[in-house]
Amino acid sequence: MSTEITVVRPGALTTVQDAGRRGHAHLGVPRSGALDAPAMALANRLLGNDPDAAVLETTVTGCALRPDHHVTVVVGGAPCPVTVDGRPAAWGTPVHVPAGAVLDAGTVTAGVRSYVAVAGGIAAEPVLGSRSTDLLSGLGPAPLRAGDVLPLGAPAGRPAPSGPAPWPAPPAELVLPLRPGPRDDWFTAAARRTLFSATYRVSPHSNRVGLRTEGPALERARGGELPSEGMVLGAVQVPPDGRPVVFLNDHPTTGGYPVIGVVTDRGLASAAQAPTGTPIRFTPG
């Protein structure tokens, strides 16, 4: 009989995520997948899972789960209090949860997204080769609700020995390496200087589709709009208000606003953990 977990408290937004749906952008399907991929991989490694095994990605307020069999769990990513049936448990290292007990990953103390990994991984039905929830297209499992039941896979390895793991701290300042283009010539020289010299802040309107910014508007050198063209992960699109938007994993695969540059992969995991108001600096990448 397979093991299942029941969602007791779904939190503000909890979704199933893995490495995502790579290779389908030409069909209009975004990559999706865990926004903080290194956190997902580390949580899985500590459990002996495949690095890309499906996990739960929570948003700010965590979630609570009840397994029907004994399971081993790691809560990582953004730091948060962890309890098992109300008793304090360890964050960032394997925790044993008895059958019928409630594991609660609480509200984050820093960062935005915590990751709840279970030995064996979340065995939701794959769609186009991935178990990830895609909020833009609706592919994959729906965001979790109280009472949802999730199947688990069979544990593939042994949990790592207990001890400190190298979890990076959420950023106090978000530094995003950026490669200019392909449409940086749509902006004035002053705007291009502003992009690399001004301090922006994370907007409260940010989500899994894009990290929106607050700060100085970037002035166009030319008017009009582009025909829709392909968009990539990390593209920095500039809508009519002039404030850059960094595309994250659930981004649309096409768009008509000019892309002034592309954030390199090494900056995107930190973007997943930057709460509202975090200062942002774009640097030449």
Structure description:
The structure is a single chain. With 285 residues, this protein is mainly beta. 10% of the residues lie in helices and 28% in strands. It is built from 3 helices and 20 strands. The chain has helices at 37-47, 189-197, 265-272; strands at residues 4-9, 15-17, 55-57, 63-67, 71-77, 82-84, 87-89, 95-97, 103-105, 114-118, 149-151, 174-180, 200-202, 210-214, 229-230, 235-237, 245-247, 254-255, 259-263, 279-284. The strands form 4 sheets. A 7-stranded mixed β-barrel has the order 12-19-16-17-14-13-20. A 6-stranded antiparallel β-sheet has the order 7-6-9-4-1-11, with no helix packed on it. The longest helix is centred in the N-terminal third of the chain and has 11 residues, at 37-47. It starts with a strand and ends with a strand. The mean pLDDT is 95.
Key descriptive features of the protein:
3 helices, 7-stranded mixed barrel, elongated, 6-stranded antiparallel beta sheet, 10% helix, mainly beta
Listing every helix as H and every strand as E from the N terminus to the C terminus, the arrangement reads EEHEEEEEEEEEEHEEEEEEEHE
Instruction: Enumerate the spans where pLDDT stays under 50 for 5 or more consecutive residues.
Output: none
- Largest β sheet strand count, sense and barrel closure: 7 strands, mixed, barrel
Terminal residue distance:
51 Å
